[in-house]
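User: Hello, beginner here. Can you help me understand these amino acid letters and fold codes? It all follows right here:
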Amino acid sequence: MPRRVYSNLDLIRGLGYKRDSDPSSAPISALFEACLRPPGYRQTVTEHPFSILKSSGYRAVVEPDRWVPGAFTLVVDGTPQSHVNLDDPSELFFEYIQRMGHVIDQLGMPGEPITAVHLGAGALTLPRYIHATRPGSRQQVVELETDLVDLVRAELPWPKDAQIRVRHGDAREVLAKFPPGLRGSVDLLVVDVFSGARTPAHVTSIEFYREAVTLLKPDGIVLVNVADGPGLAFARGQAATLLEAIGHVAALAETQILKGRRFGNIVLVGSKNELPFEWMPRLLAGGPHPSKVVSGQELRDLIAGAAVVTDTTAIQSPPPAQSIFQVKPGSR
């Protein structure tokens, strides 16, 4: 692998001096940057491809990854939503996406094509991953924001030979309109629906999950991305609800997140059948570290009596602090 070369400015920023991420660090960052500028330096602003999404009004931007040539981040409403390496779609960047990738790798035989449905598109990171690692897979993607898909298609096109069909519309509404022949034939269902940095309430209820899991084969798997913070009130409710809907659930996350000590993403893995215990060491070994898989009695202890969420009681996921995920314009 060729050696990656970083500039002095990149190395300084890598130490944590991120302009605008922390007001107290801004003067330090500005000082370092000023010292490194050559005589006569004039700052220019590069406008990245963007779209103002008609449905939500959010601004979606495609930004190049300064560390990885050929890789890009999709930022929506200041929140990084997806990361895609066009040169190597099998490389997954976000930690929760890596955990989902480890589960996907356990389905069937290695490299075997699967049928997958993705609720929530982003930059189609997982559909690209599945196409790269399981060629011939049939995939359907549901996305509300048509202009988001248009932006991604124009700036981050997926392979023309990928069997990926994009359906436009609200995830729950499109779910009810899937053809009867698809129900009971899906190996993998991914629920990763966000509006900005939050999951809408109507895709968190028992009514939604019961409808969603009808797509799965008897041995199919559902993956749900849940974002929550200290106390895990939202995540515990989601675990209780998915467990009620499908019967068997495990949770994967970084250890401190599962302990409710900081905000982050928890991946819920659901199945109509008992999840194979031989998966668990592999999922842990795959990283990122430190991580943990919670299932069985330990999962029930985590749920700790949380109520099953209904359409009547459903709420959207809690917002993260801006310092955690959100990116201010000009800070990248």
